[in-house]
Each structure stands twice: as structure tokens, then as C-alpha cells.
Amino acid sequence: MLTHFTPSSDITGGPWYTDQEMDMDFIEQISNQCYNMIRAYSFPQHNPGSIYSADHAKYATAAKVRSFIMDNGISQVDLSVDHIEQLLNMLVYDGKIERLSPTHDVSTGFESANKQSSWMYRAVREVSKESPLTDIPCGRCPVANRCTASGDVSPPCA
After folding, report:
1. Cα–Cα separations (whole angstroms), residue 120 to 13, 56, 57, 83, 153
2. What gap in Å lies between CA 41 and CA 134, rounded to an integer?
3. What pTM, to 2 d.p., does this model score?
């Protein structure tokens, strides 16, 4: 028997599985911590309503998020940068964060001197679902004057 080999994470499921079952609580806990950390790096502390300039280079990377998770003892499981990137991809697909390309030196047009450049992530501001414009969609419509129930343009009846 080959006891000195460890099975591939493709077979075991990696850190996301416990006793051959997906550990949804663990995934949710770690992804929430990732999101909170990225949100803290995304907006200026002194004015949370504003945004950083386009050349801001201090957004969170997967390596920074991993360091945060491991240094603060949030996970007892040793997570690699690839594992953190899986969680960050999930948050991107959920629309909570967005992925930014690595920073470039504006003066030279080349990638920054930081050789550890990888994708950066920033939080997406939550937009209120309610808007006064949804109550009056005809305000800027170019054919509003021809819009009647029996006209050339007819609104959907609710």
C-alpha cells in the first residue's frame, strides 16, 4: 500500500470538503471574510462615499487576502493562493467584487516593478434597487408622445 502519497485535491475536494461533503459553512465564512477585507481596501477610510483614482495600486490581491486569512487565524486549514482565488472568483460571479488588471507604470507604460503583480480586487458598491426613475420610465423616452394603449408604441400592461 502506498501510504506515503497524499491523494489529489481533485479526488478529495481540497479544503472545501469535510468527510466527503461540501462544507458550505466554511466556504461562506471564509468568503465573507475575504469580502470584508476587500471592501476595507476598496474605499478611502476618511471619506467612504468617494472612490480611489484610476492609478490606485493598493487594492487587495489574492496573496494579500490569503495573508489576512492566515495571519488572523480565520482558517485553521492551510489555504493556498489558488484556493483564495477560487473564493474570489465566486465573489466576482456573485457581483460583490470586481477584478482589476495589475497596475501599470503610467510613465513607462510597462507593468509595475512589483514582480508579484496579479489580479487586484475591489468591492462593488451596492446600488439601491429602488429608484424614482423606475416609477417614471417615460421621462426620457424619445417616443413618449406616441405612446398610448392603441398608438404606434404601446406600453406593456401590468
Report:
1. 26, 11, 8, 16, 46
2. 32
3. 0.68
